[in-house]
Fold:
Amino acid sequence: MKNLAQITAFFGILCTFLVTEIISATAQTQQPQTESRPLSAPNVTMKVQRISGTCPQSVGLWWFLLPFEGGAEHTVVADTKAFADSTKLVSSNNKQFVEFVSPLRINYASCIGQTQNQELTFYNVQFKNKQAYFRIDLRKINAPAREITYKAVVTSRPFVRWAVAD
Structure:
């Protein structure tokens, strides 16, 4: 029942953001219109820099942006299901940092490495000790107001909503 509630909440939020994306795409008349359909695959890819072992080539993120006057609300879901079967939220009251840990599947258990992206330094996945650590660190963003507003595990994936404002 708890999983059903999580799945329902996840898809409800996902639908809201997909509608926003469709409206945004419709409003942009400079770009040719393409077929509208839900995102079934991550829209951001972060490459994994392998140090040793067998590692996934990349980590996918579903990243949605909802702008508002003076800032934006971001929702991100990490596709940890590609290399792990479960995820746990590491407990913390920090409003600018969140961490999730996922035990790696046996074929990736030897992986030591991490994602590298110069533009998305606030998103990071580190592979070590047979675990994957997905982190969001808003302290790396130069903005006066930034805060994680929601964090949970939804359909065995890290789910985070955060906002930034001027």
Confidence is low (pLDDT under 50) at residues 7-33. The first helix runs from residue 2 to 27. The chain has one domain: 38-165. The first strand starts at residue 44 and ends at 52.
